[in-house]
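Example 3.2
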Amino acid sequence: MIMSVGAFSPRKGHDRLLEAFKRVRARHSMTELVIVGAIQDQEYFEKLTKRVADFEFSDAVSLHPDAAREKIVALLNQANLFALHSQEESQGIALCEALAAGLPIVATDVGGIPYVVTHGKDGILVSFGDTVAFSDALSALLTDESRRAEMSAEARRNCIRFDWNNIVDAIVALYRDL
């Protein structure tokens, strides 16, 4: 299962993730895609719902609007990969949560994402809009169980950078240095 968490808003790029997933599904027929998020743009959400219904493999894609926190955590624990084809992202708390769940990440190399995801270590970064490269990255990780396991272990190690206690300590140290 590939999971994505992000508000249902055009800037999150779920439409492009669906496009990439078409290619993934052609190569990995048992793969599912789960997208979870708050509805910020009803028209966009309806567009995604229609697009999923039009897919030949609509049973492999599920959209979960406004899911409870417990459901999100349960889905993160079931997933094999995390995907975010965002057009813009300042930092991405969902990425930190995916790292903590030990999920290798495939995401776009925009905004603050490269400061969270270390390309080649705990995830793969591709250019926004390049759905072919995005699907190739997802497929590569789905195919290579050993690499996925290495990235999963690295994700769990790297998530500690985003623990609130560590962040507070770093900020206090920065102010002391000033």
